Every structure is written in structure tokens, then in C-alpha cells.
Amino acid sequence: MPKGSLELTNARKEEIISACAKLYETMNFKDITIKEIGNATSFTRTSIYNYFETKEEIFLALLQREYEMWVESLNGLTEKKTDMKKDEAISLFAHSLGERKVLLKLLSMNHYDMEENSRLENLISFKEAYGASLEAVGNYFSKFCPDMNGGQIKDFVYSFFPFMFGVYPYTFVTEKQEKAMKAVGIKYEKYSVYEIIYNCVKKLLGGKENE
After folding, report:
1. Considering only Cβ atoms within 10 Å of each terminal Cβ, which end of the chain, N or C, has fewer?
2. The CATH number of the domain where 32 resides is what?
3. Tens digit of pLDDT for each residue in 43-88?
């Protein structure tokens, strides 16, 4: 780790992560290199290795940041809202993920490679953010679905999180993918992130209209 203040170190890390996020808007994971990321920062490419050893560590840090932002949003809703009907709670929950396109895109990637090629201390930091998201979702629905017991909330959480890994591929389809589906006779129904999350959560919670 380079010499300097903790504030400078964190600022440099954030700049690297943000540069990666910007590239990820138009490029694929496999095409983004540390050189590309370095070119998008205000300091030399070789300096990146003072903060991240691999490209996978940078992407893991980006995924961690996305989880942290989602947790902040969910916890804010849990604290500010005093009472909501189940349907409104599901709707706001779906909107919270509709705002996290990068999170959903990263979740559709191969986590094994990302985590395996990161140092243990970085993986621990990421798992903290992931664990906080499990807790935030559990707390949110425990508060706004008081008819559900702890076991039911736990079952929901561990059913919903694996589902999130497939949301991005179903909601963001390329022209090439559409052509391929059309060629084999698959009728592609386009859904927004909000719609697919809302419908899934509604079914998992056994929601009824006007609850």
C-alpha cells in the first residue's frame, strides 16, 4: 500500500472503481483491462497495482459498492416508512433494484472467477456488504410483512437472492440475442427490471391485490 493518508487511498480506490464502472457501461468484462482502467484515471496505470492486484479485484470492489448503495437505499426506506401495505412495500422494493442496473449486470457474471482472483481481505470486505444486503432485505420485509414469521422471511431471502442473478439477462437483451430467439421461434416478452422483480416478489410472498 502506498504512503499517504487514508483519505487519499480511499479517494484513489474510488476513482479506479468509478473508471471501471464507466467503461462497463459500453464494454464487456473480458474486454476491460487494467490498462484501459488506468487510462481513465488521473494517475499512472502502474499506480493501480498499489490498490488492486487484479482486474477481478476492481470488479469485486464495484460489486461491493453497488451492494452498499442498495443497502443504504433499503435501510432508508425501512427507517423512514412507518407503515405500508404489502403491495406498496413490494413496489418500492422493486424500484430499489430498478435503480441498480450495474448491480444486476455484475450479478449475471461468473462470481467464482471474480472471487477466486481477489485477495482474502478484499473478499472479506465484499462478503460484509453482501451479508448486509441479506440483513437489509430481511429487515425490510419483516417490518412491512408482519404476518410472516422469521422462518418465512429467511425462506424468502434465500429464494430471492439466487433469482437476482438472472434478472439482467432477462431484462437487457441485445439485438443479436433477439435475432437468435426469433430464428428458433422464441417469442421474447420484454419486461422492465421493476416488472420482473415485482412479479417475482409478489409470488414468493403470496401477495394478493390491494394488500
Report:
1. N
2. 1.10.10.60
3. 888 889 999 999 999 999 999 999 999 999 999 999 999 989 999 9
In a domain, 59, yes or no: no
- Within a domain: 32: yes
Q: How many CA atoms lie within 13 A of 81 on its CB side?
A: 21
Asked whether residue 83 is domain-assigned, the answer is yes
| Domains contained in the chain, number | 2
Instruction: Give the residue from 50, 66, 52 showing the smallest Cα distance to 122.
Output: 52
10 and 81: one domain?
no
- Is residue 209 included in any domain, yes or no? no
User: CB burial class (10 A; 0-12, 13-18, 19+) of residue 13?
Assistant: middle
Distance CA 112, CA 114 (A): 6
pTM of the model: 0.92
Whole-number Å distance between alpha carbons of 60 and 77: 26
> If you search the block for the grid coordinates 443479436, which residue do you land on?
176
